[in-house]
Write a structure and sequence with these properties.
heterotrimer, A mainly alpha, B mainly alpha, C alpha/beta, B: two-stranded antiparallel ribbon, C: D-Maltodextrin-Binding Protein, domain 2, D-Maltodextrin-Binding Protein, domain 2, about 15% strand, globular
């Protein structure tokens, strides 16, 4: 283990370390803590210039209640859910199949197709903006959740394929060979042999994609408009435009928008980190 | 895993015979078809369409007018393009700081004291937050009237600075905001990597008298190479995709000094005053070519690793 | 064009509440309306207006969609080409040009025939491109200097009538420790308000229009003269610090707290300033003073408008709605709520301190400009406003900025 385990060092450093941890954490999360404090302050604190002092009264409930009742936030949140979940399902399903095909079979063009997914995944996606917008308009699904979902599914398939293919590569080949010897059809091998083994990868990808898509802002801006279809990342800017300079409400709104992926992360931490760090260890 | 229905398919010999004979070569294509079609339509073709559109002058509303390489000539004369390009390079270089910073935090947290798991999670969680929220949080942090940043400058006796309103500081200010989640990402990569470091090699190093930085450099870092590689890749991608933070924090200002190519492209093509789809596409092409260098490098390395297996 | 707004006050007084008779029979079918009136007061006003239209046409199925004002500006091009509503709000002047050129706005010249043309004469030119009218106005408002009357009184200042008094006042305000003007240039257009007025007063309306129409070089000495005047204020330190970081709303508290004495703004700033606690004893208005003696005073008076997208599905209903919008009685009512000015000459102006000052000012005005980003084409507006913002921070770069604008002009107006 590196660096030297703390138990083996001097007693004073052990105490020092234990004391340093919370301080470092507070420093690290300072901007966020500040916003959290903003969100429970009364409006008067801001007009009186009490930005950094203690809240003169606790208005957390009122502020957050206002976010949910006096704005389109609930609709934006619902839109986010309705965009994120289908995308997760679609991208994971497609990439289970592509990953299986690329990971199990040897055929001409395998490597090239794989490279296509990888390269496409690394593209700064903003460069797709003009054509994808045209395509979406042409399909008549501009400003719909479906339009956003279809693009997200397609784009995330690149990353997911990279992930799945590498995962499947590492599975024991013998299982598949044995099934083939028994005369099991290829589709059944996929469904009954490989898919069950992929559960950890599916879980990891699902939480990862959930976070990516929930936090998307750019495509929401390019492909949707208005509370009918926009997710919460875009909604928060309209919310802020409506409550400009009302920092207590903007803070509360921002935290609400940020919360679902945070909750997802803490609930599914193991899978999340497994997904993110795939490839970080050989 | 259920093994019960495995053998059942062999019961359909005649009907499935053609399929049966060819299924090993057909299945992969069947499996690939939906994913590949989606990816081609939404990602690969649009890249080439961008090349095509960049040869036209087009407001996105009326008919297109072919202008050849005129948009690229315009780019050559466009100061704003160079500002964006310069900022892209700044982003690429400074974003790399996330890697050593992430490593430092990972080393700091790589202990087994009580509650360390929670600490690790909390250190990581800026990464989970939407960049939109990170942008908002940091623009309040930098706010010239009440921002925490100027309060902190005051503690060490410095005059207040209007980070996001001053063309000298603005890009650095946004990059710092971007480094916050990116460092968290690199940290988690290294924490995972450190878990897998071979203890015997560390012991061997200790016996050789290696300590501290020397140990880190000669024994630990070589073993962390896969983590470093991933960190490098995701950081470059992150740097070239920087859009959300700029859009939220400064909208490209003051006077366009915080633009990057991705933002400038959006601005000329689709923002309030932008109607130049062809010009936006030309910027996209330039950005793509920059990224191509990295993609080629990554694919080359991956191909090499594959053969090594 | 000499007199865009020569509304006769006498005519106004006699016909004020004689509105057109309400439509006898209700409309059928659907009507889809997109609005950018997302701020609280305008939102309520429009909702109330539409509900009155609904009452008259109980069988009409009206769908209203209110979109954030800033977001609307980028979204309009999308919904005009796909999912077009039947009626949409927008702005007059060159701001209509891209959509008119692309054939996305319906020609509504028929609505302007006959009597209505007289009633709306003041904005007819601003609604006209290629000799046709592309929408109808529902409101306009004055721009000018909103100032803290109590601060001026304390310092013994009077409303300035010329440039020397303007600067003299400012110097006294600076000496007292406050700033003369608050401004937030993060979204650029506020700086264009200053350019408009400095250029209108230094060089006159015709020159300003030629410049925004691309007929004059940005490197012209007359433009430089405008910038020289601006520079005098900048060098004095007249503007608040760090204005590049603020939106126009975020710049309001400086005036409310008394850190800045005045704000060059449109009349829509009055409502939030009043909300901030400045009642009419503390808040006052004056016209932007003369700079070059003898140049007649023209004003910025942006017009807000309704249009019918070319791809609208219910154009007859939309036309009926537009007719309803411009009725004198309706314009009286909605502008009373908006705190703005009605365009219909038969309407009456609400009894409000600032409208009472603004209305005669605009009536006496030599001519009315729309606003920089409505008079100049979108691209030019963007590049120029960025230049204005940069100039306000780095006046030494004036020549480089003007050269950049000139190069843009040559490209944009070809």
């Amino acid at each position: 283990m590196f660096p030297t385990p703390i138990e083996k060092s001097s007693r004073s450093w052990q105490f020092g370390y234990q004391g340093l941890l919370p301080l470092a954490l507070i420093f690290w999360l300072m901007p966020l803590i500040a916003v959290a404090i903003f969100s429970i302050k009364p409006e008067a604190d801001f007009s009186q210039g009490n930005y950094w002092g203690w809240p003169s009264s606790f208005e957390g409930f009122a502020n957050y209640a206002l976010v949910f009742t006096a704005s389109d936030m609930p609709r934006y949140l619902l839109n986010s859910v309705l965009i994120t979940l289908p995308t997760v399902i679609g991208a994971v399903a497609l990439s289970c199949m592509t990953g299986f095909a690329l990971g199990i079979y040897r055929f001409k063009g395998n490597m090239w197709l794989f490279f296509m997914f990888v390269a496409g995944n690394f593209v700064p996606f903003q460069i797709l903006m003009v054509p994808v917008r045209e395509l979406t308009l042409g399909l008549g699904i501009y400003d719909t959740k479906l339009g956003l979902v279809l693009f997200h599914v397609a784009f995330q398939t690149g990353f997911c394929t990279l992930f799945m293919r590498n995962f499947i590569r590492a599975l024991p080949k013998e299982l598949i060979e044995a099934a083939r010897v028994e005369g099991v059809s290829e589709l059944r091998i996929f469904w009954y042999v490989v898919l069950p083994l992929m559960k950890p990868a599916i879980a990891a990808l699902a939480v990862l994609i959930f976070t990516f898509i929930w936090n998307d802002y750019f495509w929401a801006l390019v492909l949707t408009q208005g509370p009918g279809s926009q997710p919460v990342t875009a909604g928060i800017t309209s919310f802020n435009a409506e409550y400009r300079a009302a920092y207590h409400l903007m803070s509360a709104g921002s935290l609400v928008a940020a919360l679902p992926p945070v909750a997802m992360f803490f609930a599914m931490q193991k899978h999340f980190i497994a997904g993110l760090t795939l490839g970080a260890v050989k | 895993m259920t093994s019960m229905p495995l053998a059942s398919s062999s019961r359909l010999p005649s009907r499935a015979s053609w399929w049966h004979r060819n299924q090993q070569s057909l299945t992969p294509w069947l499996m690939l078809a939906p994913g590949v079609i989606f990816f081609l339509v939404y990602v690969i073709f649009p890249i080439f369409q961008s090349f095509h559109i960049s040869l036209f002058e087009w407001d996105g509303l009326g008919p297109k007018e072919f202008v050849g390489l005129y948009n690229y000539e315009e780019l050559y004369w466009d100061d704003a393009f160079y500002v964006s390009l310069r900022n892209n390079i700044l982003w690429l270089l400074l974003y790399m700081l996330a890697i050593p910073a992430g490593l430092a935090i990972a080393l700091f947290l790589n202990q087994t004291v009580t509650g360390i798991r929670l600490y690790k999670s909390l250190f990581f969680f800026p990464f989970v937050i939407s960049q939109v929220v990170v942008g908002l949080v940091f623009s309040w942090f930098y706010d010239p009237t009440f921002g925490m940043f100027n309060v902190m400058l005051g503690w060490i006796g410095l005059d207040p600075v209007n980070v996001l309103g001053d063309e000298r500081f603005v890009t650095y200010g946004i990059i710092v905001a971007g480094l916050w989640p990116q460092t968290a990402y690199c940290m988690i990569l290294y924490l995972t990597g450190l878990n897998a470091v071979d203890p015997e090699q560390i012991e061997a190093g200790r016996l050789d008298g290696a300590k501290g930085l020397k140990m880190l450099w000669h024994i630990i870092l070589p073993q962390l190479r896969p983590a470093t590689f991933i960190a490098f890749v995701v950081t470059i991608i992150g740097a070239l995709r920087s859009f959300d933070l700029i859009s939220i924090m400064t909208n490209g200002g003051p006077f366009g000094e915080s633009r990057v190519l991705a933002f400038y492209m959006f601005e000329v093509a689709l923002s309030e005053y932008g109607f130049r789809m062809g010009y936006g596409a030309a910027i996209a092409v330039v950005l793509f070519l920059i990224m191509m260098i990295y993609i080629a490098f990554f694919l080359w390395k991956m191909a090499r690793d594959e053969r090594g297996h | 064009m000499r007199s865009m707004l020569k509304t006769s006050l006498a005519a106004l007084a006699t016909t004020a509440f004689v509105a057109l008779p309400a439509m006898a029979s209700g409309l059928q079918g659907e009507l889809k309306i997109f609005l950018d009136t997302s701020n609280p007061a305008p939102r309520a006003t429009m909702e109330e207006m539409i509900s009155r239209f609904q009452e008259k046409n109980p069988d009409l199925k009206i769908e209203t969609n209110i979109i954030d004002r800033e977001a609307y500006k980028t979204q309009i091009r999308n919904f005009l080409t796909a999912n077009a509503p039947d009626v949409a709000t927008w702005y007059a002047g060159n701001r209509m040009l891209p959509y008119v050129n692309a054939g996305l706005f319906e020609d509504v010249s028929d609505l302007w025939e006959g009597e209505l043309s007289q009633k709306l004469a003041s904005t007819k030119k601003a609604m006209t491109l290629d000799g046709k009218q592309w929408g109808v106005p529902y409101s306009y408002y004055q721009w000018g200097v909103y100032y803290r009357k109590d601060l001026y009184d304390k310092l013994g200042l009077a409303e300035p009538k010329n440039w020397d008094e303007f600067k003299g006042n400012c110097q006294k305000i600076l000496d007292s420790g406050a700033k003369c003007f608050t401004i937030g240039t993060k979204f650029l257009w506020t700086a264009a308000g200053w350019f408009d007025y400095l250029n209108l007063r230094t060089n006159g309306y015709e020159f300003h229009m030629d410049l925004t129409a691309g007929k004059v070089a940005w490197t012209d000495d007359k433009v430089k003269a405008t910038f020289a005047k601006w520079r005098e204020l900048i060098d004095m330190g007249a503007y608040i610090d760090n204005h590049t970081s603020y939106s126009w709303q975020e710049a309001l508290p400086f005036m409310v707290k008394g850190d800045a004495a005045a704000y060059l703004m449109g009349n829509f700033a009055v409502a939030p300033l009043r909300d901030g606690g400045l009642d009419d004893s503390k808040l006052d208005f004056h016209q932007f003073p003369e700079i070059t003696p003898g140049i007649p005073l023209a004003e910025d008076a942006p017009t807000d408008t309704f249009h019918i997208p070319a791809q609208a599905k219910n154009k007859d209903n939309a036309r009926a709605f537009l007719k309803f919008v411009v009725e004198a009685q309706n314009q009286t009512k909605i502008n009373g709520q908006l705190g703005q000015l009605p365009v219909n000459a038969d309407s009456s102006v609400a009894d409000d301190k600032f409208l009472n000052e603004g209305f005669p000012m605009l009536n006496k005005a030599y001519a009315l400009a729309q606003f920089f980003d409505r008079d100049a084409p979108a691209e030019m507006a963007k590049i120029a406003m960025e230049g204005f913002q940069e100039f306000m921070v780095k006046p030494d770069k004036q020549d480089a900025i003007l050269k950049r604008l000139e190069r843009a002009r040559k490209r944009i107006y070809k």
